[in-house]
Design brief:
By secondary structure, the protein is α+β, with helices and mostly antiparallel strands. The protein contains four helices and five strands, in the order βαααββαββ. Helix content is 27%, strand content 28%.
Length: 173
């Protein structure tokens, strides 16, 4: 007869919740948490050559509507976050919105994503993943014209909901 399996070690106390008491990675148990409305906003930028920016701004890129495709890619990525980030919980998203701002002076496109759910864990990773994939899609669609584009400053701007409440980036305070 086989001996009974050992139960996993209790979660570690402290700021790194994805490690148990033995230092092993684990998926955080959110079963006892209350379901609440959760919202997260994230943003990032991509800088490029003036001619590449003009292609996006004018809608004349060879591969088509760069920002329209990047918006769809961002939304799709948010829905697949748990498949990409190993310890993320799959979430039933209730809303994802992706918007773009064109900065002609700096030849830069900014994407901002808001992700929402009603659940036991936050949507920060979904918003950040959406921003990342939206920017990568712009790079992919324009790389034939400009391989020197720079993706930068991907960051969480704000999150709300859950036990930890509302958090806002110092930049927005």
């Amino acid at each position: 007869m086989n001996p009974p399996k050992k139960l996993p070690a209790a979660p570690a106390a402290g700021p790194l919740t994805h490690f148990d008491g033995a230092g092993q990675a684990h998926m955080v148990d959110v079963g006892a948490k209350a379901e609440t409305a959760r919202v997260a906003r994230a943003r990032g930028h991509i800088r490029m050559a003036p001619a590449t920016f003009a292609l996006i701004e004018g809608g004349s890129a060879k591969k088509g509507d760069v920002l329209g495709i990047a918006r769809i890619a961002a939304i799709q990525a948010s829905k697949r976050t748990s498949e990409l980030i190993p310890l993320c919980h799959p979430l039933a998203l209730t809303r994802v919105a992706a918007g773009f701002t064109l900065d002609a002076k700096n030849h830069r496109v900014t994407i901002e994503v808001t992700a929402e759910t009603f659940g036991r864990t936050g949507v920060e990773m979904e918003a950040l993943t959406a921003v990342s994939v939206g920017l990568l899609t712009i790079y992919d669609m324009c790389k034939a014209a400009d391989r020197g584009m720079v993706i930068e400053d991907i960051r969480l701007l704000e999150k709300a909901g859950g036990k930890s409440g509302h958090w806002t980036s110092d930049e927005l305070k």
